[in-house]
Structures are given as C-alpha cells and as structure tokens.
Amino acid sequence: SSPSPANSATGISITADLSWNAGSGATSHDVYFGTSSPGSFQGNQTATTFDTGAMANDTTYYWRIDEVNAGDTTTGNVWSFTTIVAEPAQATNPSPANSATSVSIDADLSWTAGSGATSHDVYFGTSSPGSLQGNQTATTYDAGTMSNDTTYYWRIDEINAAGTTTGTVWSFTTVTAG
Fold first, then answer.
1. In angstroms, rounded to a whole number, what is the distance separating the alpha carbons of residues 10 and 32?
2. Given phi > 0 = left and psi -120 to 50 = alpha, else beta, which region is 81?
3. Which residues pair with 174 in a beta bridge?
4. Which residue among 12, 54, 104, 169 is least enclosed by CB atoms within 10 Å?
5. Are the CB atoms for 142 and 108 separated by under 8 Å?
C-alpha cells in the first residue's frame, strides 16, 4: 500500500525511487518495473524501496509489488506514473546567420526549433539581447522594415511544459543604404 510515486502521478523526477508500505506478514517483495504493465521482474528484496536508475523523460512507467512469505505470494496492484517532460533544447540554425553582414532591411528571422519546444519567445532589437517581441509557435518572425547599416540582436528562448531554455544571442548587420 501507499505507493510512492502515487498511482497515476505525473511530473515525476527521472531519478525517483519507488517505495511502499509492506503488506502484513510479508518477509520479502517481488519487484516489477518497466514501461509496459505490470513491468518486468526486477528481483526479490526485503527492502521497501527500489532504485529505478535513470528513467526517460515524459514516459509512463508501471510497477507492481508482490508480497512474499513462507506460505505464499500475494500479487499486488499495478501502479503507474509519468516522468517529467524535459526542458527544450536551444534553437539553432539562425537566419540571418550569426554575424552576417549586408542583410536586407526586409529580411525575416527564422530558426530551427530546439527539440521538445512547443513555443518560442522572440527577442529582437538594436541592443543585446533585444526586447521581447512575444511568444509564438511559428519558427519565423517578421521584423518589419529595418534601418540600413544597423546591427540587430536577436534571441529565441524555447518553451515547453517543463520550462524555458534561454537561447544564444545572435546578431547581424543590415546592408548600407544606396
């Protein structure tokens, strides 16, 4: 009884251990754990905790504890939990490229989304890192008509349910007029 993580819990650390209260009369416990129900047999032990090792992010795990004594084995309930979503990776492949020169004053910004990102905070302006322009799901941003011979800075912060990953500040300089 009293499984930890609790049955159907979400947002569980990928380094969480399993623990439970032993059944009355149990002298040892058969531990089942894995990504399919009821989990695969992990061994028999006397402790009421089990080290899962490093688990994968955003994954549902199943576990069961069978209580054992000299007389018999009692099959336990199957419990499950889902691990936390990983924070997204940084955005990559900026266009215009970092430190580019002679960029058109009508250029749009684009990038490759970081793995796991669900939206992007766009920073853009003439001072580093730029000012927040808003949050969006698209991987392009229309900067409008920019000034000639001006250095612009921009950054993309990647966001998902786990949090925000701050991006690298990129810059480019627009084409000289005339």
1. 19
2. beta
3. 103
4. 54
5. yes
Residue 75 CA to its chain's centroid (Å): 34
- For residue 51 the two structure tokens come to 């080290």
Nearby residues of 31 by Cβ (< 8 Å), 6 or more positions away: 18, 41, 42, 43, 44, 45, 50, 63, 65
> Which DSSP letter does residue 35 get?
S
DSSP code at position 72: -
Give 17's strand partners. Answer: 51
CA dihedral 17, 21, 27, 29 (to 10 degrees): -40
Contact indicator for 174, 148 with CB cutoff of 8 Å: yes
Cα atoms found within 13 Å of the Cα of residue 53, Cβ hemisphere only: 4
- What is the reported pTM? 0.70
Give the chain's radius of gyration (CA, Å). Answer: 26
The tens-digit pLDDT sequence of the chain (178 residues) is 999 999 999 999 999 999 999 999 999 999 999 999 999 999 999 999 999 999 999 999 999 999 999 989 999 999 999 999 889 999 999 999 999 999 999 999 999 999 999 999 999 999 999 999 999 999 999 999 999 999 999 999 999 988 999 999 999 999 998 7
Q: Identify which of 45, 48, 39, 57 has the alpha carbon closest to the alpha carbon of residue 17.
A: 48
